[in-house]
Write a structure and sequence with these properties.
Number of helices: 15
Structural class: mainly alpha
Strand content: under 5%
Order of helices and strands: HHHHHHHHHHHHHHH
Helix content: over 70%
């Protein structure tokens, strides 16, 4: 029985990290990841040739984000993930929480807006269409916390605890669609919170932290539910192949532990990124204030001193 389209998942030997990391590419994700890296590289080269600078850290973050998707989908982890709940959960957590964070820190939309040429007056090219998409009502809806937080939660409970998951896992196309969904959910959830790219919904830093922590408890509860369950809860993983030498319930408990742990680690990473962004924003604001004071002779301070002097005069 070939679930994934590139590995005989029913005859897999017992899982080891070495076996899991063997190359076994899913054609869709291989092509998509290589295309993503090539387009990003084209944008960086175009900026450099033009004499513009692009932070190396952003390039590194984006590359690591795409490579993390390839690691999950283009190795035998993807084969084992079809029959082992624990390995599948690693795939889900990385693709929905780690990969989006790294990709967003790479600021691919900002790079595209800077690298793509303008189409000229009255015409619409790729850059203009991208700007229209960013400012569309659709983007305002899908990046609003009233949409992203419920979607983030529903992607766990509504998927794993209903027959939808088993249906998707029953075909290669369904499996690809599910993984693409995990990535998309992660991107729209983390983009308004810590993304570098411009977006239609960008609240203050305190609200961003609240948005981050609003979804994480549900993630932890989902992991705990799997850890505490006394019977298998997902039909796909009820009868693992005998060649794996695992027991379904213990593997499910391990999957729950992985989901619970991943609710903490990315939260800390995003919080650190947010604090650095907040600090950088405050520093830029302070520099702008200093430059304005240099230009106008600090009129605000003079006005305040004049106000204090007037109060002093009135008090006599």
């Amino acid at each position: 029985m070939d679930h994934s389209g590139h590995g005989m998942t029913m005859d897999l030997p017992p899982f080891t990290l070495g076996r899991g990391l063997e190359w076994s590419a899913d054609p869709f994700f291989l092509v998509a990841c290589l295309a993503g890296l090539a387009l990003y590289g084209w944008g960086v080269v175009r900026l450099v040739r033009r004499g513009d600078k692009w932070p190396v850290g952003r390039t590194v973050a984006y590359t690591l984000g795409v490579l993390s998707i390839m690691l999950m989908m283009c190795t035998r982890l993807n084969d084992y993930g079809m029959v082992m709940f624990s390995v599948h959960m690693v795939q889900h957590m990385v693709i929905s929480m780690v990969s989006p964070i790294l990709i967003l820190l790479g600021a691919p939309i900002t790079l595209a807006l800077r690298a793509l040429p303008t189409a000229g007056r009255g015409r619409k090219g790729p850059r203009e269409l991208l700007l229209m998409f960013l400012h569309s009502r659709y983007m305002r809806i899908v990046t609003h916390p009233a949409f992203t937080i419920p979607l983030f939660i529903a992607s766990l409970y509504g998927l794993y605890f209903t027959p939808i998951f088993d249906t998707l896992m029953g075909s290669r196309v369904g499996h690809i669609a599910m993984m693409v969904h995990f990535l998309a959910v992660g991107l729209v959830f983390f983009w308004p919170i810590m993304g570098v790219d411009p977006g239609p919904h960008r609240p203050g830093y305190l609200m961003r932290m609240l948005e981050l922590f609003a979804g994480m408890p549900f993630h932890a509860f989902f992991g705990i539910a799997l850890m505490m369950a006394s019977q298998p809860m997902v039909a796909t993983f009820e009868n693992p192949p005998a060649s794996l030498g695992i027991e379904a319930l213990s593997d499910q408990n391990a999957a729950g532990g992985i989901a619970w742990a991943f609710s903490e680690v990315p939260s800390v990473l995003v919080l650190i990124a947010l604090l650095f962004q907040w600090y950088g924003s405050e520093q830029r604001q302070a520099r702008r204030t200093d430059r304005a004071a240099d230009r106008d002779g600090d009129k605000e301070l003079e006005a305040y001193n004049a106000y204090l002097a007037s109060l002093n005069t009135q008090g006599r």
